[in-house]
Amino acid sequence: PSSSKKEGQSMRIAFEMNMDESYVQSMLDLLEDAIITIQNKDNGGLSYEELYRNAYTLVLHKHGARLYKLMKSVIEDHLRKEVREAVEVSLYNDFLAVLGTQWQDHKVSMQVIKDVFMYMDRVYVKNNKVDEVQDLGLKLFKELVVNHP
Known about the structure:
The protein is mainly alpha-helical. 70% of the residues lie in helices and 0% in strands.
């Protein structure tokens, strides 16, 4: 059988790149809720395959910037409202123990978040020269908790 494809050309699979905004928003909402759940150490009921697939789809359809901004914002909110507050309350009572526990919890949650956003790290982060998920989480902890006046 003859082929209309020239030798050496790869066949590209074409698909619709435009996604319905409400569908995009529903995926962002799902991922936002998942990050919060992970940070609250209540992630037993999450489907990591579904979360990864949603993050993958958003990046694939050119929504990586929105996803990255959302992820960063949720992490910042948690560090400001939950972690920093817990550390400040402990200033005169078990400060180092509380800071150490918060740091360990943050590292664990960032590892899980990193796994969910692995494709974003490989594609969006690399191409846009922004911090990888894990590095961002560590920098934000330093900036918003440790170095907070």
